[in-house]
Amino acid sequence: MSQLLKKREKFFYGMGNLGYGAVSQTYNNFIMFFGTTVIGISGTLMGLAVAISIFWDAITDPIIGYLSDRQNSLLFGKRHGFMLLGFIGVAIFNIILWSVPSFLNPTAKFVWLLISMLGVETFNTFFATPYTALGAELSDDYNERTNIQAYKTIFFLISFIIPSVLMYIFLGNDLSQTSQQGYMGISIVTSAMALLFGLSSVFGTFDSIPRLKKKYQKAKQEKKEKTPTQIFKMFFYSLKRKNYNSLVGGYAVGLISSAIISGVGLHLFTYAFHFTSIQIAVIMGGLVLATIVSQPFWVKISKKFEKKTAVLEGILITLVGVAMISIAFLIRANIPTVVTFIICLVSILVSGFGTGSSYSVPISMFADLMTIEYAKTGKESAGL
Are 334 and 275 in contact (CB under 8 A)? Predict the structure, then answer.
């Protein structure tokens, strides 16, 4: 029987992504600069620390996903206990991360930072992986899943703005400031957000636990102890199946493209178009706003014309925006800067609107595959 959620439940579920995103976005934006300029660790060691933390994240993701799938807590079900532990751990290690004692030597600072980064990544996984799996399980309704992911996407996109706001409040809009106090203030605020919104997400969806327990009662029969090697074999076996492979591959390419465009975009607007910091802020804010505003539209499109169509149309619209920026780049020397700015702003709004489909629709398609898999095998694998 299809389950349609109340708006309140979807709202509280989505709120969890704001707390998680606030920590993740400030971490991603500031950690390299903080380590090298504020703490005085070499760029090589900071690069090594980031690489190790990413590798560790890749290892823990499928393990936590598997453990969450096989969990059967009387009070917290499969997901909520992991989520609760996750955001509490993230809040603690996030503060420790930015509180490196100044009296330590560079090697000791590196060890402190590395251990803290591993702690943040580990508890991020404890929260984010079961949280994402929960979003796939909250409803059996094909279109409702997309709606749930839209709520989650909106809150995550709001978190994109958090680093800029906190930078202005605590660092005086000057990232080159070498005082550690400002970064510690940012960590306290983001940790508080992780606790507040994490609690809201856990207890705002707590009523779903009895229903989910009934839904996956059969999975208890499949509960067997697995070695880490077997867990990874199961993970990579999933990727061999065509539908999973297509979704994972396409989603990965989309995320990589987004990261590259975000990084290159700042340089493009600064050094090629020579926009001011205010103009760049308006453009980046427009990107986030357009993506947020597009969510109800893509929910309707996926419901009317199917999810695959929604994703393809989103990609097409995004490419139109990219083409417009490319044209602006080619003719920038022959038109006034203000005209170039207007063209780029419109292009970004178009691109952001199109990109909105790639944030929420593919995740709901994962949920559809999980439902088919469960119907065929009776085995729960959403977390994995």
Answer: no
